[in-house]
Amino acid sequence: MIRDSAPRAPLHLPTREGYDLWAELYDGDGNPLTLLEEPRVAELLGNVAGLSVADIGCGTGRHTIPLARAGARVTALDFSSGMLAKARAKDGGDRVTFVEHDLSRSFPLESGTFDRVLSCLVVDHIVDLAPFFAELGRVTSTGGRIVVSVMHPAMMLKGSQARFYDPITGQEVRPASVPHQIADYVMAALSAGLRLEHMSEHAVDANLAARAPRAAKYLGWPMLLLFGLAPR
To answer: Is residue 165 domain-resident?
Structure first.
């Protein structure tokens, strides 16, 4: 990796542009947040074999592809063409219905059709939360389950947000994020008519710091916020 000799201020980009650029290295970025999050999301989703699943903001398919391999019928939405290209190219991508779509708008999905709906590490990029949570609820079937994960708002107190380093210039790049608080997420879900079934906060421990050394400076600090929701 080539790094400039002098430190440079972070480059702030619109969310879509930032993720299109990040797509090339996202899966190999050694991100401690995804390492912390993935097994916990899988646990909340449970057995998905034979179920209809919507992955809202699928990125490179880090959840999408395992869900399809586990026997789910998966529809995956994202507005980053770069991220979607990576997801489609993965083994198992041919089993998924991918849709390029701006998540700030109503989802192009039929109401009440999905047994499981997940939106992972997305909501900190959504400006208007209530309509987004309402859409999550709208597409979920009666008796279905919604899982939402997000970088813990406390991370912004440490000066952290979704970010990566350009492999050519070494410059830090920050896709646009919104500094929501825990209450913002909870109230948006409740105002959308959803039932809160699970909420948990997960901090960096020694095991995660050993697996992802860049997490060591956050030891003991909350990094992940996780919700389990359901339509009323």
So the answer is: yes
- Dihedral, CA of residue 225, residue 230, residue 231 and residue 232, to nearest 10: -110
Q: What is the model's pLDDT at position 2?
A: 38
Task: Provide the domain count of the chain.
Answer: 1
Contact present, 158 and 189 (Cβ < 8 Å): no
Q: What are phi and psi of 31, to 5 degrees?
A: -75, 115
**Domain for residue 2, yes or no?**
no
In 3D space, the residue among 161, 167, 154 whose CA is nearest the CA of residue 204 turns out to be: 154
Q: Does residue 138 lie in a domain region?
A: yes
| Residue 103 confidence (pLDDT) above 70 | yes
What confidence tens digit (pLDDT) does each residue in 176-210 have?
999 999 999 999 999 999 999 999 999 999 999 99
How far is residue 218's CA from residue 68's CA, in Å, rounded to a whole number? 33
| 1-10, 152-161, 219-228: range with highest mean pLDDT | 219-228
CATH number of the CATH domain containing 61: 3.40.50.150
Three-class SS of 92-139: CHHHCEEEECCCCCCCCCCCCCEEEEEEECCHHHCCCHHHHHHHHHHH
